[in-house]
Amino acid sequence: MGLRDDLERYREVGEQRRQDLAEFIQYGDLGRSEEIHIPIKIVSLPEFAYDRLDRGGVGQGQGGTPEPGDPVGKPQPQPGDGDEGEAGEEGGEHEYYEMDPEEFAQELDEKLGLDLKPKGKRVETEEEGELTDRTRTGPDSTLDVERLFKQGLKRKLSMEFDEEYVRELLRVEGISPEEAFSYARESNVPVSKAWIDDAFAAIPDDERGRWASIEAMEENVDREPLTQRIRREGIGHIPFRKEDERYRYPEVVTKPQHNVVVVNIRDVSGSMREDKRELVERTFTPLDWYLTGKYDTAEFVYIAHDATAWEVEREEFFGIRSGGGTKISSAYELAAEILEERYPWREWNRYVFAAGDSENSSNDTEERVLPLIEGIDANLHAYVETQPSGSAINATHAEEVERRLGDRENVAVAYVSGPDDVTRAIYEILSTEDDS
């Protein structure tokens, strides 16, 4: 095995040592992009190492040999030694394993013991396919020249006949043009009556009666095969006709596909401290990646709310600061409006994911949120409570949702008090969708 093979082997080992998926979801830097970069636990590749100090040989010093009794000085610090000195300016090397959402979804299925298939509605979409269909009209650029040529050639070959053979027929004793035409038709010779009339009139009188009968003519004159005549004379011209023209146009291909829209709702009220916000993002990001990998077409809506709700872009959603009071119903009202206008239930699979610390204004959950959840058609409604302390006196929203709607097949409630709970919460949400 050569050095190149060793290098390839070490690289394979490095990829195998990438961070465990569950560990990455719980503790890794998920970032705020739509790309999935999982750190690899680096395995150093073999290389030749050279001494940084050029001493010139074994036993050689820098300024001569010291005399007995001379004090030995302290070794001079070298770059990179010890804790003192200026910070370096060059960054270190970091390796990542790039994973697309489909691969991420497949591996998460395996990790969590799931095998979810895209569910719900399959939308029929029409797309233009190959130029395989034909029509009688169209732009000149789409004219099917090959078909036009073939049709003309077929007509040319169907009209061809051995003209000399027919002229010899007209030299039979006492034959009339009508009799010659009738005989030609019976013999499958594609000659017209007008052509026979003209040819009969052109035969000199001294050549008429050359053959005593048609039988005598047949015994002495052979019909030349069409292929032989074409080899000798060529095709000549090909007759094209308007009715032979066909124009190509795209075939309309109907493809079924699964479409999904995911509405992500997060609480950004004043009670959502940094540790709570971090748990929201750590839960939502893998769910986004997962559904992107599962569905043919995935779109995302991001809604932030305190006492009021507003739609935001993804970048703002995963980084928004906290402040203000709390009214969770405002987010569901906006979600219902957006879904109705842009993503009708008959065409879209719909997921509504909400997260926060379960603290809500008085009676808002009972009077507004629960009826809104019941009124929004969706494959799955999920609420994730993020309480690092594990509980709070006024954090009752998740419990109320679970008590009132927890027995529904499309409602899931999960509790996250730390990074260790994230994968379990994702499993609870996705397994609920699997049961449905």
TrEMBL record:
Organism from which the protein derives: Halalkalicoccus paucihalophilus
NCBIfam families xref list: PRK05325.2-5
Biased composition (Acidic residues): 81-90
Protein name from the UniProt record: YeaH/YhbH family protein
Domain of life: Archaea
InterPro entries, sorted: UPF0229 (IPR006698)
Region (Disordered): 53-91, 115-139
Pfam families, per the entry: DUF444 (PF04285)
Compositional bias per record (Basic and acidic residues), positions renumbered to this chain: 115-124
